[in-house]
Sequence to fold (92 residues):
Amino acid sequence: MSHTVKDKSKLLARVRRIKGQVEAVERALIAELGCTDVLMLVASLRGATNGLTAELMEDHIRHHVVDPDSEHDADRAKGAADLIEVVRTYLK
Fold:
């Protein structure tokens, strides 16, 4: 079973929150709010999207490449853990 199917409800909840954030940006533009307010909403949206992306990428690495928590080869485990950390940092 794919990790996206296993974690489907959790991922869908995140997507629904992102959808709400997109709708908030739309409402702000319709209401002609100031650019600072709109930019703050967009920054929050970007953070939420990056968080979802990081979670999906980490799960992909753990399920389809190497799970550092169960890998017996120490070098491979460290490489996978390092890659996961780079993804998290990059998408922060």
Remarks:
- Residues 35-65 form the longest helix (31 residues).
- DSSP finds four helices and no strands in the chain.
- The chain has a mean pLDDT of 93.
- Residues 3-90 form a domain with the Methane Monooxygenase Hydroxylase; Chain G, domain 1 fold (CATH 1.20.58.1000).
